Amino acid sequence: MIDIQNITKTFGEQRALDNVTFHVGKGEIVGLLGPNGAGKSTLMKILTCYIAPTEGEATVCGHSIYDDTLEVRRSIGYLPEHNPLYPDMYVREYLRFAAGLGGIKNRNERADEMVELTGLSPEAHKKIGQLSKGYRQRVGLAQALIHDPAVLILDEPTTGLDPNQLEFIRSVIRKAGRDKAVLLSTHIMQEVAAMCTRAVIISRGRIVADDAVSNQTASQLTEKFHKLTEFQES
């Protein structure tokens, strides 16, 4: 569902991505790992058609990021690193608005479904600006899911969640991953071990590992991450 071929992105003399190639299929949850500045968010912005690559090609559900950007965007549910929300809107109001943008006819019912799915019911009567960071993340995930996209792209989706919220959102993402292609970035190895089917490690814009997660513990993933990204103790 996501096919990335030889993607390169430069900003001036800086090469943010260098010949990146991999595939995410239906039913896969792929964790994109890397140090800060490795190129993770840049790749996600390319896949969602926010920025164009310097070289290479990518398709989402068969639609080119160059020639069919509207269909790419329709196919994706996206939660960016800095979750853009309207703080003066109520939770259900915002989700109905997002459903309307997605062309959903039964937007009230769909908003209610997302409130239930993401565990927002206790806070649904509040304005978004009154929510904790963890609940704002839930609202962002709800808007990413509301139009039932074939592909989910989630940039650090569990940021700010407490342990109880964390386990709940993990279960939501695992459930979504049964019939969608999910690409998520995180710095938390326990997240990858708990949710992902594969881990793609990127360092200095290049893929340095692409392995199945099965039978790998969080500590093993951490050790591999440190080794491949040139971790040095201070």
Notes on the protein architecture:
It is a single chain. The chain is of the alpha/beta class and 234 residues long. It has a domain of 162 residues: Rossmann fold, CATH 3.40.50.300. It contains eight helices and ten strands. It has a six-stranded mixed sheet with strand order 6-7-8-3-9-10, with helices on both faces. Helix 3 packs across helix 4, helix 4 packs across helix 5 and helix 7 crosses helix 8. The longest helix is centred in the C-terminal third of the chain and has 14 residues. The radius of gyration is 18 Å and the shape is globular. The model has no long low-confidence stretch (mean pLDDT 92).
Taking all Cα atoms into account, the compactness measure Rg is 18 Å
CATH class annotation of the domain at 2-84 and 150-228: Alpha Beta
Beta-strand percent range: 25-35%
CATH topological fold name of the domain at 2-84 and 150-228: Rossmann fold
Distance between the termini: 41 Å
The strands making up the biggest β-sheet line up spatially as 6-7-8-3-9-10
Which class do the helix and strand fractions yield? alpha/beta
In one word, what is the shape? globular
Helical content, roughly? 25-40%
Please report the total strand number as a whole number: 10
The SSE order reads EEEHEEHEHHHEHEHEEH
Helical stretch tally:
8
Sequence stretches where pLDDT stays below 50 over 5 or more residues: none
Assembly status:
single chain
